[in-house]
User: What shape does this take?
Amino acid sequence: MAYLLGVALFALAILVSVSLHEAGHMLTAKAFGMKVTRYFVGFGPTLWSFRRGETEYGVKGVPLGGFCKIVGMTPQDDDVDPADEPRAMWRYPVWKRTIVMSAGSITHFALALVTLWILAVSAGLPNPNFPSTDAEIRQEPAVVALSDCVVPDNTARACQPGDPASPAAQAQLRNGDRITSLNGQPINNYGELLTGLRTLPPGSTATIGYVRDGQPAETRTVLAQTQRPPLDDPKGAVGPVAALGVGLIPSTPTRVTYGPVDAFGATADFTGDMAVGTFHALQRIPQKIPALWTAITGGERDMDTPISVVGASRLGGEAVENNAWLVFFMLFVSLNFFIGVFNLLPLLPLDGGHIAIAWFERARSWVYARLRRPDPGRVDYLKLMPFTYAVILIGGAFTLLTITADVVNPITLFSR
Assistant: This one.
């Protein structure tokens, strides 16, 4: 039930975000005097609507987004009443049209930034100094957290009946103990512990030196067996190795909470990192299409493959099911930021495509004026329709691919 509630909550959050996106277009258009005739949440048959002034507001039957109708978005719009021609959007200065078309993405960015600031002063943001690379993790002191069991295979899953108990727990080790030696060999960091365990055969007895509450002690235990790739080649062949049944407790906290003022700087820093990550994610999309197809046809799902709103909602459901509300809201932040950036790509029918055309017209008119040649006028959107249809077709196929992958082989963050 918690999982389904989380899915519904995240889907609702996406719907609200998209509705606010369209509201951004509508409000800025109205502020500049453009005529907005319709604003609806959803698509399909109308369930309920009302008219206020010159705009009809309402809800439609398919809750997959929303739209607003601004009169005369392009010179080729043929449904503009002659009385509304002076208020047609395409007649307005390019800077006003840019603000109206970018208002949707700005709304997504605002939602992400406000949510990040709230998280920064309440639950905290990810610690920028937290060890993230293998090299950084291996340099951490070997302060351990005990596992409930040793999973015999090379998978991240919950313990199941029949899995061997954690040798560390059987040896009476506790969470927070710092391991200092293994069979008499000094252990200075977590990497040395991993390397030392790999030199021992599964089933052998290990003597473990450790420090608890400042007091040194020693214990013995029989090592279990699991499957792992080589330490220096994470994608190498998996083989049997000895396991102690522990993980690492990093010396730095995973999150940092900020005061109301410091939270602005932390939010800005995190947003900058997110912008770089989003740019790299967009670059990797073409490379990940084969991996999506592999996931659909029975292969393993790559955690780095794109997800659809279906996949994002499922992850939101997992987060609520595991009481990981920070993960839920960080998913909301990431999705809004990605949508905001994606919508500004200079491709029709995206908002960025309309912005790019507006500024192209402006630049072309400026050049022609300097050359003392007649203004070439507006871009003919009808000539761009084949390209627009191609973008829609490719986008639709990609969306279908990601949705299918998220249904048949979804990404999971928690063992269920």
In short: The mean pLDDT is 91. The chain has ten helices and twelve strands.
